[in-house]
Amino acid sequence: MKITMLGTGHAGVTECYNTCFVLEDHGEKMLVDGGGGNILLRQLKRAGIELHEIGSIFVTHKHLDHITGIFWILRRIHQSAKRDPSFRKICIYSHADVISILKTGYKMLLLSEDEEPDDVAFVTVSDGEQLQILGDQFTFFDVGSKRVCQYGFKAETLQGISLVCLGDEYLQAGGLPYAQNCTWLMHEAFCAEAEKDLYRPHRMNHSTVKDACENAKSVNAENLILYHTEDQRINERKQLYGDEAALYFGRRCIIPDDLETIDL
Ligand SMILES: [Zn+2]
Fold it and tell me: Ligand 1 centroid to 63 CA: how many Å?
């Protein structure tokens, strides 16, 4: 399994793109979240990923920095499907809130009155539901956000590698059973611990690098990926966050830049 990070920043960043990524396994690709806009199309292009290669999409929650980019994908899909009737139908997975917004938005913003959204399959997943995607087993779960309904997932490969994504929420009760002993944990980290008074991540229900590391350690995660960060330290964050992770996690911790790929 491979991850291509299309964006690594929080909602308000300007020096990188909002957090979203493409998962790839067995020659299939799934987009996870869309970031906040049309820059998603640029990031896909720069990553060398064609739209027709993406067979599925998962959206964690309805915040603008995660959902809005999906409308640009829907626009492209609709245009392509109109031109080429054999265009592969894309599957969008999420919980009921997000599916309702995407379906309504698709109809209202992109389709004419007599058109039906039949080039996209909108699939509502429930808490704990398991599905085979990319040839791997995905379990979707409610992360337990106090702000807005948000789902994460655990992907398990036949080789025994497990990847747990918590969206842009820190590890809470909803994610605990899934994150326990996982091979890879993707956890948000807004800023370095030393700069928490400057960025005040806890006010927004986000974590410092130290918090994320302690959470990863508490569930015995083997590897950690930190994302959804501030962007004022964009050039130093690998070093700065990496040093902090060495102190509080002590295992492999990756702080990816936009367009970086990670082989799991
Ligand atoms: Zn976010």
Answer: 7
- Flag whether pLDDT at 228 surpasses 90: yes
User: Would you say 166 and 175 are in contact if contact means Cβ atoms under 8 Å apart?
Assistant: yes
Q: Where are the domains of the chain?
A: 2-263
CATH no. of 2-263: 3.60.15.10
- 132, β-bridge pairs: 137
**For 69-213, where are the E strands, in sequence order?**
90-94, 120-124, 130-133, 136-142, 151-156, 162-165, 184-188
Q: What burial class does residue 82 get, using C-beta atoms within 10 Å of its C-beta: 0-12 exposed, 13-18 middle, 19+ buried? A: exposed
Give pLDDT tens digits for 94-120: 999 999 999 999 999 998 888 877 789
Distance (angstroms) between ligand 1 centre and the Cα of 150 equals: 11
